[in-house]
Amino acid sequence: MKITYPHMGNACIAIEAMLQKLKLEVIPPPPISKKTLEIGTKHCPEFACMPLKITMGNFIEALDLGADTILMAGGWGPCRFGYYAQVERDILADLGYKFDMVILEAPDSRVSELFRQLQALGQNVSIVEAFKALKFAWYKLQVVEELEKKLAYVHPRALDKRKAENIYDLALEKIKATQDKEEIDKLFHTCLASLDQIALRAEEPLRIGLVGEIYTVLEPMANYNLIRSLGRLNVEVDNSIYISDWLNDHLLGGLVKKSHRRQLLKCAAPYLNYFVGGHGLETVGSTVIYARQSYDGVIHLGPLTCMPEIVAQSVLKRVSSEEGIPCMTLYFDEHAGVAGIQTRLEAFTDMLKRKKARRAAIH
Ligand code: SF4
């Protein structure tokens, strides 16, 4: 079995580690490029959301490299995600590809079911080995997310931003390549220490909360590297979604780390109190929390035609006015352009800076 998977930000580091520990031969899809999106766009319905097009491009590129099995997450609820895997399987079959597709259905609070699915996927692995594979992948994911958070703090404050980016990028590459826990620990601490040595600006940066559809928030190629662009504009970005939070809430029964889901739903309730699919509810709840934590603004991301985020956007107008937080929504599709996005980021952050300066002058 030569297995592949779809990219989603740094999650590939953990997924690859888990598959290798399950004794599988892994054929990672090449990093997402313009070509990946072009391939996906060519073979998907025009109205499909961008994550479907990008992941389709991932699969075709990986199958062309020799993969014969695709690992894909399943889903449920009112949005299209529940049919993604089936739609992709049918399109690929129509294109003449021969492959198996393994769909990991989110068991929502049945951890034993997840182990069963993983064990079935592995090549002759016991339940203990499946558990160890999952534990190691989780560990790698935690390390990567801690580094993401550290960079999110240092980058907007750094005088030498390229240096911060290079330290982080290099550390991730090395962590991805090693399966040795001690080595990963060493790389992690070296990266933290190197980032700590970077000289920082005296001025405190603007603070923006990032909310929206999970794939668009987590995959830099889907959001045109928005977090890095904001860091270069001296803006600190707090990401409201991490893949470990989603896994903890939906696959691991909330057993592995503290879940904030209840608080999110409580904060969203006065504005939106029913499930609208995807991350619509979380978008609203997180925006309320950012407003109450005195963030300067919120940026809301989604793929064009994403129903849950369209619902959330309509609610955010009220949240913005009642909670007093500026919100900007950006939708992405294959026609989005870097220059247009950069202009909107600069205009939004300029407006926030002026607002902050006015507030400071009054107090
Ligand atoms: S949440 Fe949005 S982007 Fe994701 S599958 Fe549903 S409609 Fe598409």
Question: How is this fold's topology laid out?
Answer:
Elements: E1 2-4, H1 11-21, E2 25-26, H2 34-43, H3 50-64, E3 69-73, H4 81-94, E4 100-104, H5 111-121, H6 127-157, H7 161-177, H8 181-196, E5 206-212, H9 214-218, H10 226-232, E6 235-239, H11 243-250, H12 261-268, H13 280-292, E7 297-303, H14 307-323, E8 327-332, H15 338-362
Parallel strand pairs: 1-2, 1-3, 3-4, 5-6, 5-7, 7-8
Helix pairs in contact: 1-6, 2-3, 5-6, 6-7, 6-8, 6-10, 7-8, 12-13, 13-14
The chain binds iron/sulfur cluster.
Walk me through this protein's architecture.
Helix 5 (111-121) crosses helix 6 (127-157) and helix 6 (127-157) runs antiparallel to helix 7. 42% of the residues are buried. The protein contains 15 helices and eight strands. With 363 residues, the chain is α/β, with parallel strands linked by helices. Strand 1 (2-4), helix 1 (11-21) and strand 2 (25-26) form a beta-alpha-beta unit. It has three domains: 2-125, Rossmann fold; 140-200; 204-362, 3-Layer(aba) Sandwich (Rossmann fold). It is globular, with a radius of gyration of 21 Å. The protein binds iron/sulfur cluster (SF4). Iron/sulfur cluster is lined by residues 49, 51, 79-81, 213, 277-278, 303, 306-308.
